[in-house]
Write a structure and sequence with these properties.
This protein has 96 residues and is mainly β. It contains one helix and seven strands; from the N terminus they run E-E-E-E-H-E-E-E. A five-stranded mixed β-barrel has the order 1-2-3-5-4. Strands 6-7 form a two-stranded antiparallel ribbon. Strand 6 and strand 7 form a beta hairpin. The longest helix has 8 residues. The two termini are 21 Å apart.
Amino acid sequence: MKIARVTGTVVSTVKYEKYRGYKLLKVRHLTLEGELTGEELIALDAADAGIGDIVLVNNDGGAAQMVTGDKTLIASVTICGVVDCYTWQGKHVACH
């Protein structure tokens, strides 16, 4: 599991049937210091996140199955939670 920031939304007129009811969001990983790193990815949102939120993402196909309860759902990047606050080396890095 890694932390990331939601950077945007993905709108599709045709969507894989199992994704109905879930948002697709653009995310970009963060370093523990809170700096953006890497490229943007598209994630299945199972945590009702929004643009600007810091989230926990799992880059494992089984995470989507676990958080949705659907053993047939396939997603390589899943937003599993929204981070309210975390501390890194004694410093609050992200707090809402």
